[in-house]
Amino acid sequence: MYALPLLSLSIWIPIGFGLLVLASGNERNAGFVRILALVGALLGFLVTLPIYDGFSVATHGFQYVEEREWIDTFNSSYHLGVDGISLLLVLLNSFTTVIVVIAGWEVIQKRVSQYMAAFLILSGLLNGVFCSLDGLLFYVFFEATLIPMFIIIGVWGGPNRVYASVKFFLYTLLGSLLSLVALMYLYFAAGNSFSLQDIYDTPLALGPQIFIFLAFFMAFAVKVPMWPVHTWLPDAHVEAPTGGSVVLAAIMLKLGGYGFLRLSLQIVPDASHALSGMMIFLSLVAVVYIGLVALVQTDMKKLIAYSSISHMGFVTLGLFLFNAQGLEGSVLQMISHGFVSGALFLCVGVLYDRMHSRQIADYGGVVNSMPVFATFFMLFAMANAGLPGTSGFVGEFIVIMGAMQANFWYAFAAATSLIFGAAYTLWMYKRVVFGAVANEHVAQLKDINLREFLILGLLAVAVLLMGLWPNPFAELIHTSVTDLLAHVMHSKLPMP
């Protein structure tokens, strides 16, 4: 173990550099601002590596625990810690922040300091969500993440950015308010404590458990997003700048899955069992129906946005199967989706920066002008379709195995996603990349530069590494998943 408060550093280094970038930046020193932002993002990522290096995969419970007084009135503390599940998400978030800063290096020309600062601050807040072991602290970080993303979409987004940002904010904020009510109820039930461990150990009758589950459901289902509260996501993705879409898909959607995993399953396991049929049904609707919706999209960003909803359906499906394969596959699917969806949005961003169009019909024959880009795009498209050897196959396959244990028809319905995913992804790729050059704009396209090669190359390595050698990812979460499953299978109904 390391003596430094590494979890606090992973939160406050990005936030501190974000505030520094915001304070020191103006239009005349944009170059310095970019370098300062990159330093902050790199330090934020590098400080997570010792956490991974010193993490014991055989140790039960949370590690790197920090606890300090915070709000004595409510007996709420600044309480941090990670298990294998939250550590993977912290690593993914910090890695994605570096990618996003590099991706916006040349593209963002106006309000550069505000743009970079928003992503750095957002990165720190997201790490705060994944590390929080206090209910009130979790809620504060969870809600605070809305502000930078609201600004990112509303300031640097497309023509309908105000509508999309307000819709995003209202959906996610209104959903979260009920979760605050549930946390207040749990505070009193746990003897005036917001400590998640105290709340986990508090016996609750089935009625209150169901109320708490539904309250958390409103907050986390919107974040995932689950059908039918998914309609804000395509609008947000289409209007968001490329960096915003990457973080939204790669990290922010995971807040919903992580919330179900960390709060719903562990605090109200009996209600989770009682309502698992509803959760499985909604997850399968997302997997199948939203996959069909993606087939008819003409906008690349909107297609990938609907694809994200379908793939995140595997996450919620796996969580509520209540077996080891389902839970482990769910976590691995969150990580894989972070790599693949982020990479696909970056690919669309590369094309948009050159032609200022996301319409599939405006392209055709891109491989003739951009062969290196077409190779990267093909890899990420195959990963999105769940090709074995890529990260996209790993999580989905394990969830389907877990579904097979629970019910054959669950597995059958989930497996149709592999067919639909291949259909809409390869259909998009064929129309954009293959064939003769469609028009003179495509003919004049220039292949990716060194900066774009770097960010797509890093994500390609991640996608292939997880696809070909998933063991390091699975080993990291195995003990945590086992502990979680043991807790979830133990009733919290009070003894008669």
Describe the overall structure.
The chain is globular. The protein is 74% helix and 3% strand. The model has no long low-confidence stretch (mean pLDDT 88). It has 496 residues and is mainly α. It has 24 helices and two strands. Helix 4 packs across helix 24, helix 6 (135-144) runs antiparallel to helix 8 (161-189) and helix 11 (232-239) crosses helix 16 (300-319). A hairpin with a 4-residue loop joins strand 1 and strand 2 (76-82). The chain has a two-stranded antiparallel sheet. It starts with 5 loop residues before the first helix and ends in an 8-residue tail after the last helix.
Q: Based on DSSP secondary structure assignment, what is the total number of beta strands?
A: 2
Indicate the mean pLDDT: 88
SSE ordering: HHHEEHHHHHHHHHHHHHHHHHHHHH
- What percentage of the residues does DSSP assign to strands (E)? under 5%
**What is the quaternary state of this protein?**
single chain
Instruction: Sum up the overall morphology in one term.
Output: globular
Tell me the distance between the termini. Answer: 43 Å
Low-confidence stretches: none
Strand order of the largest sheet: 1-2
Q: Report helical residue fraction.
A: over 70%
* Count of runs of 4 or more consecutive helical residues: 24
Structural class: mainly alpha
Q: What gyration radius follows from the Cα positions, in whole Å?
A: 22 Å
Please give the largest β-sheet: 2 strands, antiparallel
